[in-house]
Specification:
The protein is α+β, with helices and mostly antiparallel strands. The chain has one domain. Helix content is 39%, strand content 15%. It contains 5 helices and 2 strands. The chain has a two-stranded parallel sheet. It is elongated.
Length: 94
């Protein structure tokens, strides 16, 4: 956005596919006086992961807490993902 504005473009709104909803993102866009929108966000991702049993409902609070404060200490408290298991992607049409 800054590069575009620096080149003389008028940037009124920025769109993105996804956001983690970090508070600093909102602050940065407000400071730049620029609107933004996304097609999806972390909350939707998390709800979809719970629906398809990739994440358990009881793990939701910890995941939401860590996304708002993504420090290494918080990340170490998150549930472990079993990467050796083959997981079917629920987003592909069958």
């Amino acid at each position: 956005m800054d590069a575009l504005r620096g080149a003389g473009a008028v940037v009124l709104t920025v769109g993105a596919i996804f956001t983690y909803d970090f508070p600093k993102t909102k602050e940065a866009f407000e400071a730049a006086k620029c609107n933004y929108f996304t097609l999806s966000d972390y909350t939707i991702l998390l709800e979809t992961a719970i629906k398809h049993d990739y994440v358990k409902q009881h793990e939701k609070a910890a995941l939401l807490k860590c996304i708002m404060n993504p420090s290494m200490a918080c990340m170490k408290t998150l549930p472990k993902v079993k990467t050796e298991e083959k997981v079917e992607n629920p987003f592909f049409l069958k």
